[in-house]
Design a protein that fits this description.
Purple Acid Phosphatase, chain A, domain 2; eight-stranded mixed β-sheet; six-stranded mixed β-sheet
């Protein structure tokens, strides 16, 4: 392999040499073939292709971070308070909210969160207890925080009706985010790796959800990795339900590489099935819907994939304990990495309610 890369680098150097005229990719390929043994030539054909940026070599490592419920903005009632999300955004700026997670979200290839709310100016809202709304500019909070993709399949997408939903998707997309959920498939691409995303929200008929068509569609688009997000379970319940387990396992059988769960607003366990994982609930993340959360534990997960040209191996999982805020009372809506005994406590809380994780050893993402 080192010999192959050395030859490729040498060929690239010829392109910039002062004495060189024009060196086409076909010329370079011919020079490479002449220099390699037959065995090395066959290997090179299997692992190297040319992109616009240059050679891409398979396999390669690709890291995905997934995290929990993210609500930017608050309700009409909360906006009257001095400690509301909007007041903090005005005082501290849009870069504040994810600044405690820069080391995590800034060192991966893709970060995916559940976007639970709306970005709209629509005033007509549904009759319900909580309606979350924020201006379009709040999409910048996500991009400044290192988030590249969002799931919008949840019970707050229609807080301001169909117009609110359409505005939200339009504003998220305009900010450069990949949007998936509620029938919309999302594809994120980097360095030849394509990650397909799909998402779903309760109610689930007969505790079942067949996602095989979406997985097939994403594979046909060339996605080596497929992530399925589910809004499910019972709010503030520590244990995942039988419905969550049935749907999650079915999603893995349908071909998803990982299943990511949201909605309970607290962390739940993880299940391992043949090297792949169901993350039942990651809890909240940046959450503008609560000015003084009772449960401040949260969870992110780093998934490290070995990716080939047409598939990926099962991921290596690293669980990353978080705290919703450094504050002991109230909140500044800024989650941080849990450290030391606090991190171990959260990790054990998750593993205690997990399945198939008896031999799991949590690694380090740093």
């Amino acid at each position: 392999m080192k010999r192959i890369l050395t030859i490729l680098l040498a060929a690239l150097a010829l392109c910039t040499a002062a004495a060189a005229e024009t060196l086409s990719l076909s010329d370079m390929a011919g020079a490479e073939e002449a220099a390699l043994t037959p065995e090395e030539t066959e290997q090179a054909e299997e692992v190297v292709y040319w992109s616009e940026e240059g050679p891409i070599t398979w396999p390669q490592t690709f890291t995905v971070t997934v995290a929990g419920d993210t609500t930017l903005g608050s309700t009409d009632a909360l906006r009257k308070r001095d400690d509301c999300f909007e007041r903090v955004a005005e005082e501290k700026g849009y870069g504040w909210f994810f600044s405690g997670l820069n080391a995590l979200f800034g060192t991966d290839d893709l970060t995916l969160v559940n976007f639970e709310g709306t970005l709209t100016e629509e005033t007509k809202k549904k009759e319900k207890k909580f309606n979350f709304k924020a201006p379009a500019a709040y999409a910048d909070i996500l991009t400044l925080g290192g988030v590249e993709a969002v799931n919008v399949a949840n019970n707050h997408t229609l807080d301001y009706g169909e117009k609110g939903r359409e505005d939200t998707i339009e504003n998220l997309t305009a900010a450069g985010l990949v949007v998936s959920g509620n029938g919309q498939l999302g594809v994120f691409e980097k360095d030849g790796v394509k990650v397909g995303m799909t998402g779903y929200c309760f109610p689930y008929k007969n505790s079942k959800k067949d996602i095989s068509k979406d997985v097939k569609a994403l594979r046909e688009l060339g996605c080596q990795i497929v992530i399925a997000s589910f809004h499910w379970g019972s709010e503030y319940r520590a244990d995942f339900t039988a419905e969550q387990r049935a749907i999650g396992r079915a999603a893995l059988r349908a071909g998803a590489d990982v299943v990511v769960g949201h909605h309970p607003h607290v962390v739940q366990g993880v299940e391992q099935q043949d090297g792949r994982y169901i993350l039942y609930s990651l809890g909240n993340l940046v959450f503008g819907g609560n000015v003084d959360p009772d449960d401040r534990d949260a969870l992110a997960a780093r998934l490290t994939f070995t990716v080939y040209k047409d598939h990926a191996d099962a991921p290596v999982l690293t669980l990353v304990p978080l705290r919703l805020t450094e504050m002991k009372k109230g909140t500044d809506y800024r989650p941080v990495l849990a450290e030391g005994e606090e991190a171990e406590r959260i990790l054990q809380r998750v593993l205690k309610r997990s399945s198939g994780m008896g031999d799991f050893e949590n690694g380090s993402w740093r």
